[in-house]
Every structure is written in structure tokens, then in C-alpha cells.
Write a structure and sequence with these properties.
The chain is α+β, with helices and mostly antiparallel strands. Helix content is about 70%, strand content about 10%. It is built from five helices and three strands; from the N terminus they run E-E-E-H-H-H-H-H.
Length: about 170
Amino acid sequence: MRKIWVKIDALYFFEIYVNLKTVKAKRIFYGRGLFMNAPGKGLLKTVSILFIVFGAIAAVISLLAVFGSAVLATADGGAALGGILLLATILLLIVSVLELVLGIVGLGKSGDPSKAGYFITVGIVLCVISLVSIIIGVTNNGFQVTSLIGFVLPVLYIVGGFMNKKAL
């Protein structure tokens, strides 16, 4: 009797025993996490959880800011300023929710080395956006530590993505 490994799908791995009279197939692994080794899983999970926490905090704060700017927009004499502030806080709310969603999706994909491209791509895009934000912040009102955290987390996404990519 001879043993043959057959990969049917990314989820199913079969071990087939070939005999002259019968062929037996037995599913031995189900799911990517059982078969593949993801060395960057811990780092990516940690960064994803931090994205979720910071995104949730920023979403709550930006919701409060949206309500405050809406009140300012309805006040006499503050309609123009309140309208601009309302648009800015809605943009902040969208970015906060996006950060929250990226963290949740990243948490789900952290154990799969075949999804390393997601972390590398998202990390590069977030690094570029964060770098632009740091440059604007430094030219306007100086350097802030929160901007540095906003830059380091995407860099860690890229590092974890490359760690998982090497496992393929």
C-alpha cells in the first residue's frame, strides 16, 4: 500500500492510500491553521487587537465630536464654522471605523500565511497615510507621540506580513 498526499482545496488535505483493489481517502486536516505554520501570528494578533482598541476609542471620541459640532452648527453665528467642524469630525469617524474594521479583519487573517499580502498592503497604505499625517502635524504644531504610534503599528503589520510570507 502506498500513501499519497492530495491537496484538493486550501481547506482540505487528503491522505490517500492506494491499493490495487481499493482506494481509500481519509481527510486528515481541516482548516488552514492546523496545517500551516504562521510565525507572525502573535505579532499580527497583537497589532490587530491594538487597532481594534484604538479604533474603538477614536470612534467613541469622534462620535462625541460629531454631536458637539452638530450643536455648534445649529447655534446662531456658528453655522459656517460648525459645518466645517462637522465635516471634519465625520471624516474622523469614518477613519476610526475603518481602523476598527481593519483590526477585526486582521485578527481573523493573522493565522493564515496565504493572507500575508493583506497585511503588507494594508500596512504600506497605512504607513503612507500616517507619514503624511506626521509631516503635516510637525509643520503645524510639533511632533506628537500618538502620531508615532500611528506609524509604528502599520510597520508592525508589514513585519508580521513578511514573517508569514516566508512561511509559505
